[in-house]
Write a structure and sequence with these properties.
Length: 191
């Protein structure tokens, strides 16, 4: 039989579903270093980057029978990004992480079309929960770049009303998207 190191990611993912420790070890050996680089490039701190990657592999092993993985590499990189953003939320990142967050958000949107489609569907679902006038005001401001004053003049309402409706819309969005990565991507999507 061929050495397990010669097998494709797809084959390893299938073996993992069958509780193969050898497949897990090969996946770990194949991907730990690239995932660490991804985590470190965002966090710029060694220990939290290592923790994030180790958490990804722990989760992969625990969930090996629950998840069918279409692309092992994409799945692991995506999981690493989510763990990194969890570390950011726990304040384990340095002060420049917001710049890296924007760059990583863009990378996620451009590298993984399925994630982009899911985000687009999520965007529509969240927008549909807003009252029609609130949704229109929010989209005028975020998508079309109208100022609060311009919206007030267009809608024939006060600036205070626009502020109130925007504040409520943002509160609803934050409630529905309580993950910092989703919020960042959501607002990146609007640009």
């Amino acid at each position: 039989m061929d050495s397990i190191t010669l097998h494709s990611d797809e084959y390893l993912a299938n073996l993992l579903l069958q509780n193969s420790e050898a497949a897990f070890t090969e996946i770990y050996n194949r991907y730990w270093q690239p995932l660490y680089r991804t985590a470190y490039n965002i966090l710029q701190v060694n220990e939290p980057a290592e923790e994030a990657v180790n958490d990804v592999f722990i989760s992969l092993w625990k969930r090996r029978n629950e998840t069918t993985i279409a692309s092992l590499e994409s799945y692991l990189h995506q999981a690493t990004r989510f763990r990194v953003f969890k570390a950011i939320r726990a304040d384990k990142a340095d002060k420049d992480f917001y710049q890296r967050l924007a760059a990583e958000s863009k990378a996620i949107l451009t590298e993984d079309p399925r994630f982009f489609k899911e985000l687009e569907e999520l965007f529509q679902a969240v927008m549909n929960t807003l009252p029609e006038d609130e949704r229109a005001i929010f989209l005028m401001h975020r998508e079309q770049g109208y100022s609060y004053k311009e919206i007030a003049e267009t809608k024939d309402i006060s600036v205070k009303t626009v502020e109130k409706k925007m504040s409520h819309a943002l509160k609803v969005i934050r409630t529905k998207l309580d993950d910092p990565l989703l919020l960042a991507l959501f607002f990146h999507f609007l640009k």
